Each structure stands twice: as structure tokens, then as C-alpha cells.
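Entry 12.
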Amino acid sequence: MRGASLLLLGAALTGGGAAAANEPAGEPAADGWWLAWSDEFDGAAIDRSKWDFDVDCWGGGNNERQCYTDKRRNAAVADGKLVITARQEKASGPAFPLAQRGEPGKANARAARDFTSARLVTRGKAAWTYGRIEVRAKLPQGQGTWPAIWMLPEGHAYGTWAASGEIDILEAVNLGVRCDSCVGGIENRILGTLHFGGVWPKNAHKSNEIALPGKLDDFHIFGIVWEKGRITWTVDGRPYATQVVGDWHTSGSADPAAPFDRPFHLILNLAVGGGLAEGRGIKGVDMRGYPKAMEIDWVRVWQCGEDEASRARCGTSGGGAE
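Predicted 3D structure (C-alpha cells):
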């Protein structure tokens, strides 16, 4: 992949899960990709050398209804899987995310919510520019559920959100809920989205969605193949959408590949409610059936060599922008 780079912050390349991927980390597979970073969740606890937690009751800027915690009851490793659990319980905590708490009046502000959940991030530990990112996960169902696998920039080279970009690998809301516009009458859509443009409120986005293949309550592999100037979304190894230079822009650079030409870190979270979830389906949040869980079997980040032969084996275009 042209210009492919890997940024590891305070962490060495690891082979955690290389056996399951059938290739040792750092060595190329037959298809040209090499496993650069992974977590198979085979240990007794979440590996804090790989993951950190966002702890706040901010609501994600979307009026979500949860407080994010770092408690085991909301995120733990069990039976070789990371389990993020949303619970219907009152909680309180910081009213703003960590990045905003240095602003006047925000440091000690508190908020209360009716749910708890967790949001794990590799920020400050591992970030990548280009590659193949895949996550095998099983998603929760019910009106108001909003599981997400996504990426944010490690820095703000082009400005604060969304000028420096956001890559949503997977979002799903209200799975299994009655949906008059869905095939089969049941919500089964997944979304892949880019956010870009100017600093909020001059931000923009472009999204693609398809029906999730197979059963809603099965594990699926959600991924992207991210090249310079091109991002392709996949589910169970099959591409379903591609965006290229011209589909996005940023006000912070004249480079057409920007802002998706810088290191991004990975985020796994399960939100409850919020604008997207509550605006679809039968609206609002169904309080029944909690706790609800998002299960992650593994996370793998693959890289491709920069030469043309490697890119040919990886099946990449070699970049859509110079």
C-alpha cells in the first residue's frame, strides 16, 4: 500500500492472536498482508498496554443516555472475548470528555445518566495510517442500541472535529426492531461512514449502508481496507462500499487525500440512545431486556508492503491520490 505506515505509541509489535490468524506478527501472509497488531482477548483481563477507557457522562455529543465507565461490570474479558455490557442503572460522572475538561467551566462539571456502558480506545497506545482493520463481533439488538467500531485521528492536524476526520468502520442501531422500510420488515442494516469537512458545525459526512448478511445474532467480521485516497468497507470479507478522493474533503488542507492521510486510533463502544438510534425504528429507547452486550472475538490490524508486487498480492490499488 503506497505510503503505508504504522505508528505504535509505547507498544511494540505483538503477535497476540497471530496463531489464530495463522501468521506470526511481522511476517507477510501469502496474500501479502502482515499482521501488525492484534488482540485475541485470550487473557484473564483487558490488556491495558493496548486499551484505555474513556470515562465520562458526556453522551458522545449525540445526547446518548449512558455514562462510560472503566468498571469490569461494563467491560471485561470472558471466554476469549471482550464483552462490553450496557446496563440500565443510574450513574454520574464528568459531563465532558477528557479533551474538553481544560476549557473554562468544564473541569468539574458533572452529569447523570440512566445507563452505564464502556468505550475502549487505543489512543496514545497504537494508531495507524492505512492498512486492513478487521473486528469479529456480535452485536446487540433492541430499540436504542448503538454499537460502534470506529476511528478518530491521533492528532488534529487539520483542526478539531470533523476537519481531521472520523472513520466509522461499523455502526448499527436498533437491530431486530420492526422496520417498515427494511427487507423482511426487521432492522438489519449496518453503516460505514466518513466524517470530514470543516470544524463543527461546518462538518459533513458520507455514509453507506447494507443489510447485514446472515443472522443478526451471529458473529460477523467488520472491516475496512484503507489506502491513500480510497477506503473500502467489508463485512465477512466481502466489500460493500468504497469512497475515494472527491467523496470527501477537509478545509484544513489542499491535499485531496486529507484528512484520511494521518494516524487514526481505534474505538470500540456500545452506546444507548442518541440521535441516530432514537430517530430510527420505533423511536426512543426500549428499556426492556437489559443488560445488553456487544461481544468482540478479536481485533486485527494488517499492513501491506509499499512495493507494487506487495500491493498486487494484497489486492490494493496502490493509492488513489498522489
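Annotation: The mean pLDDT is 90. The two ends are 12 Å apart (CA to CA).
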